[in-house]
Amino acid sequence: QKEVEQNSGPLSVPEGAIASLNCTYSDRGSQSFFWYRQYSGKSPELIMSIYSNGDKEDGRFTAQLNKASQYVSLLIRDSQPSDSATYLCAVNGAGGFKTIFGAGTRLFVKA
Amino acid sequence: DGGITQSPKYLFRKEGQNVTLSCEQNLNHDAMYWYRQDPGQGLRLIYYSQIVNDFQKGDIAEGYSVSREKKESFPLTVTSAQKNPTAFYLCASSIGIDSTTYEQYFGPGTRLTVT
To answer: Which of A8, A43, A49 sits opposite B109 (nearest CB)?
Structure first.
């Protein structure tokens, strides 16, 4: 069974701090990696995609991928109360059509 | 505006009734998906379709049925055979199987309550 694991949290950080969200996956052949943000009662929103080892930055968000360690992370710099949400890690395996979602990490940013 | 629409937003049904959830997209995406989300849990794949007139079972297809007669539309029927249908249902789409990426974009969801 291919799995994507995330710490359920909640992760609590003060406003302005860096929030670090982590995800591990079991399928070594995985090729596409995504982070979604989901506010309470709403649908997931794609915020980052990453396909190769290293870092990818988009505004206050940085995704980091380490395929050797089967690990992907999301850093949120200068965290804001509006970043409080559940963050879902998602992974596509080799042949890549089906996406496996983690259960999500709840993030609280305290003002 | 391009996007995915789902209707209705909230749906209430009595046990034993079939119910159909609507999903429409105008993104010109080939692939469409249905997920179920239960409180505090991740998304579980019910069905997916890579192309018109073709669809595949996901991980929890029992008690559900779909059709894909048009590229834009992928309705989901929750049948009376589904043992625990109360959940948040999410429709998504992606460019398709000939893309190197599989970024999925979600509709707003339908919250189904069966009593």
So the answer is: A43
